[in-house]
Design brief:
By secondary structure, the chain is an all-alpha fold. It contains 6 helices and no strands.
């Protein structure tokens, strides 16, 4: 009965319950002794006439396909053939909502907010540097403490027991100053990195704004078309030429 034969592979019914089975299209005929290999889009076996069926194996854990139909294959960004498209199917569920919001954000290409974030981080780093006391005075203080340490070391070398304890105390003070200087140096390194990123983003945003300024909006195009139509109606006196020009403008579908 021809009316029972699916017209395309999309019409091949799913096995119930659909969420418990792999339901991928079988690549070979399941008739005993046939083993015909279906090509893309084939519905009926050319050897025995059987209708192509769907897989009834159970899906692999974390997948909708069984192990024979790609259930264990890496997906999304983990796949070796990933090309940066279709990430929504691989995103964690807690990111899907913000992902959709980002897709619908008309200003997502603007970099102003990114530049502002970097500026905020830079100011925070400056506050940390000021709080750490990293300045020229810090190195003068370190020089002074080093001289005191050397003084106690010479005295300890001469057999002064009290100088040994004083030398240990001076060494701890030196370590504190060095630690503060190291923290400040790391903060300054990040400041330079933030400033570099900020400059690159500002350059990109400048180019984006220049390009945007050269592109006409839909309203501007419609306004221009209105001026042209009005000019044709008022300036062209020949009715045939006027109708031909208006017909050409109508084909723009604006």
């Amino acid at each position: 009965m021809d009316y029972l034969v699916p017209a395309t592979v999309d019409d091949i019914p799913y096995e119930e319950p659909a969420d418990h089975y792999c339901n991928a299209l079988r690549s070979r005929c399941t008739t005993e002794g046939c083993d015909y290999k279906f090509s893309t889009g084939e519905v009926v076996c050319e050897l025995c006439g059987a209708i192509r069926t769907r897989c009834r194996s159970y899906p692999a854990v974390g997948s909708t396909r069984c192990r024979f139909h790609g259930g264990h294959s890496p997906k999304g960004v983990s796949s070796t053939v990933y090309r940066g498209r279709g990430v929504s199917t691989s995103l964690p569920t807690n990111l899907l909502e913000t992902y959709q919001l980002a897709l619908n954000d008309a200003n997502i290409l603007e970099l102003t907010s990114d530049i502002a974030i970097l500026e905020s981080r830079k100011q925070e780093l400056f506050r940390q540097i000021r709080a750490s006391g990293v300045s020229a005075d810090l190195w003068l203080d370190l020089r002074s403490k080093l001289e005191i340490f050397n003084k106690h070391r010479r005295a300890a070398a001469g057999g002064n027991k009290r100088s040994e304890k004083a030398m240990a105390a001076s060494l701890r003070e030196i370590e504190e100053v060095v630690a503060a200087g190291y923290t400040g140096a790391i903060a300054w390194q990040e400041v330079y990195d933030v400033m570099d990123r900020q400059a690159r983003l500002a350059e990109k945003e400048g180019r984006r704004r220049e390009k945007a300024a050269t592109i006409m909006t839909e309203d501007q195009v419609r306004q221009l078309l209105g001026y042209i139509v009005n000019s044709v109606n008022t300036r062209v006196t020949d009715p045939d030429i006027k109708m031909a020009l208006l017909a050409d403008l109508e084909r723009l579908n604006l």
